[in-house]
Design brief:
Oligomer: heterodimer
Helix content of chain A: under 10%
Largest sheet of chain A: 7 strands, mixed
Helix content of chain B: under 10%
Order of helices and strands of chain A: EEEEEEEEEEE
Radius of gyration of chain A: 13 Å
Structural class of chain A: mainly beta
Distance between the termini of chain A: 32 Å
Strand content of chain B: over 45%
Largest sheet of chain B: 6 strands, mixed
Number of helices of chain A: 0
Radius of gyration of chain B: 14 Å
Largest interface: A-B, 26 and 27 residues
Number of helices of chain B: 0
Strand content of chain A: over 45%
Distance between the termini of chain B: 41 Å
């Protein structure tokens, strides 16, 4: 595998379920990001991890819980979501978190909350 | 708050037509500017970027963008589009000085007719 991979690619869950999204990067990068992409809205940055430390939490509700066990893996744990949380969740990575670094994106997980 | 505006949401062109997609941002300080492209069924990928220096930036596949500081703009151009340029194009801004935050526009869907 090369680049940034995300699993699952599609997820349907009820509001009472608990699920996790997984992201893995094979680029040797040290920063990883979660974005939310909703229809007709800009990509919204959710979380940033730099060298496994969370450096940004963009006022994300606590029903979204990120985890970064190492520089190659990033998880987004989901619980008691709302229908308005349905969106495409994109993971990205960059060499480091900072203004000079190009981000490489994964294919996304299409989440539907019923 | 910082924001990025892409005024053209949908653009339809015939092959060989010239393309210009608008991008305006609101931030008065130093910025780093990006255009990303998402081809159908593929990941977001970097098209070109501007950090400093020559305000006319050349990217992949014949695309270029011009940074006009006085207009807070970073428009994307291509002299002659091809059917394979059909994609969604996103402008992004990173307000330098150590911030990890990228602000994306809502995207412009380009359809090129063969």
């Amino acid at each position: 595998e090369t680049g940034v991979t995300q699993t699952p690619r599609h997820l349907v869950m009820g509001m009472t379920n608990k699920k996790s999204l997984k992201c893995e990067q094979h680029l040797g990068h040290n920063a990883m990001y979660w974005y939310k992409q909703s229809a007709k809205k800009p990509l919204e940055l959710m979380f940033v991890y730099n060298f496994k430390e969370q450096t940004e939490n963009n006022s994300v509700p606590s029903r979204f819980s990120p985890e970064c066990p190492n520089s190659s893996h990033l998880f987004l744990h989901l619980h008691t979501l709302q229908p308005e949380d349905s969106a495409l969740y994109l993971c990205a990575s960059s060499q480091e978190a900072g203004e000079w670094n190009e981000q490489f994106f994964g294919p996304g997980t299409r989440l539907t909350v019923l | 708050a910082q924001s990025v505006s892409q005024h053209n949401h949908h653009v339809i062109l015939s092959e060989a037509a010239s393309l210009e997609l608008g991008c305006n941002y609101s931030y008065g300080g130093t910025v780093n500017l990006f255009w990303y492209v998402q081809y159908p069924g593929q990941h977001l990928q970097l098209l070109l970027k501007y950090f400093s220096g020559d305000p006319l930036v050349k990217g992949i596949k014949g695309f270029e963008a011009e940074f006009i500081k006085s207009k807070f703009s970073f428009n994307l151009r291509k002299p002659s589009v091809q059917w394979s340029d059909t994609a969604e194009y996103f402008c992004a801004v990173n307000a330098g000085s150590g911030t990890y935050k990228y602000i994306f526009g809502t995207g412009t869907r380009l359809k090129v007719l063969a």
